[in-house]
Amino acid sequence: MPPVRPIRIAPRLLRAGAVLAAAAWLVTSAVALAAPQGRIISGRPVSSTEHATGAIVGIADRTAANAWDAVSCGGTLVAPKIVVTARHCIETAPFAYDAGTIDVVRGAGTGFSLPRRGWTGVTRVRVVSIHRAAGTFAAAYRRGADIAVLRLATPVPGAAPIAYARPEQSVLWGDDFGREVGVTALGWGATIDANLTRGTEAGGYADALRSVELPVLAPADCLATAQEPAVTRSYLCAGTGRATSPVRAACYGDSGGPLVATDPNDGAADATPTAARTLIGVTSYNETEACGDSYGRFVRIANFASWLDGFLAVPVGAPSGLVAPKVTRVTLVGSRAAIKVAPTRGSVKTRVLVNQGGNASLELGMVPPAGGSIDLPASRTGLIKVHVRAIDARGDESASSPVRTVKTRVDRRGPIVAKFAARALAGGSWSFAWSRPVDTDRAVEYTIEKRRTGTSAWTPGTYGECAACWTSARGRFATKELVTGLVGKWQFRLTVFDRAGNATVKVTG
Question: 5-313 has which fold?
Fold first, then answer.
């Protein structure tokens, strides 16, 4: 079974150069898997007269030189200082964004444009805390919980939050029967067709906010074509698939953005996108590489209505009121660190993270509320920033503690990868194998990019977490399908990262 294809945020971060300290992409969607979907495909520019546009924001790297490069995902305001987005927009295990490195933004003018030079006209608001659905990245994805909440420092000027659907409102997405009209996806995502060949705008990404009306499939119809039915049944399916012309879908960069529906009782007889006003889904992933090749998956927001209610009920932090703990001491002994924490009330365990100067942190694991011993990675400078988050009994996280800079081992050598090969399969699919990385610390993540032979630009392919990406019996990585539909001659580029942020690149012939 080929891997599920999440909708990545990475391409813009790569262009901006604002990548993770140890990984060149903060990948979107679901879990050590791969990438999807199209322009907002067959969509149209929106205007400020459309109701839902007042709630749409972009998730942006605050260090980027311009708004167009900075925005990597979408999000939806459900309260003046609360944004709902996809969990994969702020995390790709074992890395997670730090709140202080991202803003939410509202595009400029009536079309909500993202300037390619500077930030003129764009509204920016600082994110003060990030809260993910309980459980690991992979477990959350599999149960349909590719969802996260961002708390903001201040309300977004000029914005108008929208309501989110509740379980009893299943008529909004067609219940068990689906819905042909009245459901709309919005975003600044990729403007490429189902074959990833025609960029409809320079750079392949929208300059201004776009929308597209999508049919919502009956669950039985979506499951009939699903490669992972156990996962698919937890999500809403929407889009046309390749068989319909024109293809209508979401794409790279649309992740985290809204799927909104018209209330059938609001008098909008034609159920047009301009009447959209209720959030029913969060753009999540696609099962195929090519944009619009299969139906998109959207987080079923009604499943999380009570969880979101908790955030609206309290002014800061997690719904339980859990506050950030504090690191009081870090003692390094060899490759391990003894971490002492001043615990916060309600904490049942503490998540330990380290930042090495980028916009995201590497998650090291869990220790008891008052701290414990954990393996500490090396760094290129010999210094590393440690911070922690408290976890309560429900699995909700606090905001991060202040960082504490400590000394660690120095490592400036990338992983050694002796061989990397790509093999064409039937129907334009590809599989890969490469030798197990050898590193003084530990390889943690890899990416594979692709380009048609004779061209210069690399585009996203697949990625994975190296903790589970090789088979010890053969001493090489397990075969990974990258994409379908890549007919002709292609080159592929493998990049393997270690915990210190060093990288090794291998390119096929």
Answer: Thrombin, subunit H (2.40.10)
